[in-house]
Amino acid sequence: FTKFGLHFLFTFLENEHQQIVLRPLPLYDVLQIIGLVFVMIVISISLAIYPIIKMNISTILSNEK
Prior knowledge:
By secondary structure, the chain is mainly alpha-helical. The protein has helices spanning 2-17, 27-54, 57-62. The mean pLDDT is 85.
């Protein structure tokens, strides 16, 4: 239903008010967005696994009883 509603809204705006809501992005902008998303993913994964990398597994296993 959401896609149908958005399609109807965009079509209505284009036909009745001559407003183009969705415009095509140049290739440079698309590549820039993809690059920024990739950088954010790498940073978030690095922050998530940092505590795991800092663990000394041999010490943890040797203290196990």
